[in-house]
Amino acid sequence: MSKGSVKRVVVIGTGGTIASRWQGTGYAAEAAGGEVLAGTALPDGVEVSVRDLFTVNSSQLTTAQQLELLRTVHEVLADPSVDGVVVTHGTDTMEESAFLLDLHHHDRRPVVFTGAQLPLDSVDGDAAGNLYDAMLTAATGRDIGVVIAFGGFVHAARGTLKAHTLDPRGAFADPSGQPLGRVKFGEIAWGQPRERAEVLPVPAVDGDAGRTPRVDVVMHHVDADPVLFEAALAAGAQGIVLVGTGAGNATPEFVAAVERAVAAGVLVAVSTRVAAGPVAPMYTGGGAVDLAAAGAVLSGTLRAGQARIAVLAALLTARCPQERAAALRRIVTPDAPDAPDATAAA
Ligand code: ASP
After folding, report:
1. pLDDT per position as a tens digit, 29-76
2. Which of 86, 181, 187, 245 is deepest in the core (most CB within 10 A)?
3. Do domains 8-190 and 215-332 have the same CATH topology?
4. pTM for this model (two decimals)
């Protein structure tokens, strides 16, 4: 970075393994952002300030906290002297928070999520390297939306998921796409830019967990019946992600359950258990063709966690069931803004 052009990056701490230490029986997040940053070199010409928001393992996050993070990032970016934002976050649900923020991100300046697979107190941990790469990406990246910098790669939030439970290098990947960039020796080699969905307004919902819509995930498998799907409806779900087999398939019983749910105003998305590739309307007899005809929205290449975030964002954005389904279609297929009904492709 050229001398004389100091870049200002704000690091927002939320916890995760990058802030975790041994508690006697296992690891848990406890370190403040300043402590996490203390072990990390700063990229040349970058000035950093820290804002601590939460100190939690990300498996414990709530929708209300994710919305608070969203609002905090917008608040930070309201300062024109800030060049970029880094969010330190647990890896378990990083793909969900990053995607939610990406759907609402309208700024040329990036928001860069990072974390660690190895706890803060490990001798050869990945925290310092990931944080360095994230700060570099935040200071220098433009028009990339919300990204995840991890293990030497920069991934677009959309489509990226936690791909390995423990490996630091292969922690995140987009099984259906390529990384946005590669970080090596303090430089970022950028690849192809990625399509982003139309930007959604920041939801007006307040931070009260009771006021955020319930969105459940139900998986299909051999012998599955819609009992858990119906249980989600009975629990008050306003949205459900059905994780189908193959290209997004289930059974005629699930199709009937989806039809009832949609008739009751519930937003249903279909994702798949398969690692890579899009959900596709190929099969009838309970397959994605019938699920789409019953009113479910096929979730493209989004997997369960991000499909759930897409449903949540559609529920928070639009009021009536038709508008919500249309909003969800636009979110899951950003390259087709007037997204046709999935069944049209059959
Ligand atoms: N359980 C941790 C979390 O998501 C895992 C991690 O950060 O790597 O908070």
Report:
1. 999 999 999 989 999 999 999 999 999 999 999 999 999 999 999 999
2. 86
3. yes
4. 0.94
